[in-house]
Automatic annotation (TrEMBL):
Keywords: Cell membrane, Electron transport, Heme, Iron, Membrane, Metal-binding, Transmembrane, Transmembrane helix, Transport. It comes from the Bacteria. GO terms for molecular function: electron transfer activity; heme binding; iron ion binding. It holds the Pfam family Ni_hydr_CYTB. The lineage of its organism: Bacteria, Pseudomonadati, Campylobacterota, Epsilonproteobacteria, Campylobacterales. Gene3D superfamilies: Transmembrane di-heme cytochromes, Chain C. One of its GO terms (biological process) is respiratory electron transport chain. PANTHER family: NI/FE-HYDROGENASE 1 B-TYPE CYTOCHROME SUBUNIT (PTHR30485), NI_FE-HYDROGENASE 1 B-TYPE CYTOCHROME SUBUNIT-RELATED (PTHR30485:SF0). This is [Ni-Fe] hydrogenase, cytochrome b subunit. The gene is hyaC. It comes from Malaciobacter pacificus.
């Protein structure tokens, strides 16, 4: 029987970021869909305007969007300065990363019939996949803040005029790139559906790897570790 070794894959900080992102995403999608098209009743006879249903949805959407963006910034920092691992190295298009990316993709397509890479660490395919997710979050940030400041038509806010001015400064470029406010709105909504598609594949792929690789990948986000068969060279070193 081959020996099994425990390999640490996620730190406590990374796991906290993961679950905060999951919770924020659920709230952002639910409230965002309501803002775009109110779809549920208030279940009380009073008019919705008296209970500030839309206002509360907008408030929660804005708060979790900020949390979303903070976690994205933290992940960006960890990409380069984490003492645990530095994912940016997997994004460098050198021969080693390109070959690994292709082999992981072939492994998925062939249902694990071909596996010529080391699955104990984060591979280039998964790193690129997660990088796309965080780039989508950044685009959601800029388009979302542009939609938010567009509603502040007076040019001021409860915390002063500096806030709308700053938002215009950093987000007005989206109006030119995407063809006005309606274009920004479409991109913001479209990114949400792309992120939902990303989440579906992410969950599927983690379950897929757990079943085919039999290394407990799905438990990484809970315990931070996975279990892999010990290689011959590892045994010799011991």
């Amino acid at each position: 029987m081959p020996k099994i070794k425990k390999v640490k894959r996620m730190t406590v900080t990374m796991r906290i970021i993961h679950w905060v992102t999951v919770l924020s995403m659920i709230i952002a999608v639910v409230t965002g869909l309501y803002i775009g098209h109110p779809y549920y009743q208030t279940f009380i006879a009073d008019p919705a305007v008296d209970k500030y249903v839309m206002a509360w949805n907008r408030w929660w959407h804005f708060i979790v969007a900020i949390i979303f963006d903070v976690t994205a910034i933290l992940v960006g920092y960890l990409y380069f300065f984490s003492r645990f691992e530095k994912p940016y190295k997997k994004l460098i298009p050198n021969k080693q990363n390109l070959v690994e990316f292709w082999e992981v993709l072939l492994n998925l397509i062939t249902l694990n019939r071909r596996k010529k890479f080391d699955s104990t660490h984060s591979d280039s395919f998964n790193t690129v996949f997660f990088t796309v997710f965080h780039l989508l979050l950044v685009l959601m940030l800029f388009t979302g803040l542009q939609l938010y400041v567009h509603a502040l038509a007076s040019g001021t806010s409860s915390i002063g005029a500096w806030w709308p001015a700053m938002l215009h400064l950093v987000t007005d470029w989206t109006l030119y790139v995407f063809g006005g406010n309606m274009g920004v709105r479409y991109v913001h909504h479209f990114c949400m559906y792309l992120i939902l598609m990303w989440v579906i594949f992410h969950i599927y792929y983690q379950v897929w790897r757990t079943i085919f690789w039999q290394e407990g990948d799905i438990a990484i986000v809970v315990g931070g570790s996975k279990f892999v068969k010990e290689k011959e060279e590892d045994k010799k070193q011991d």
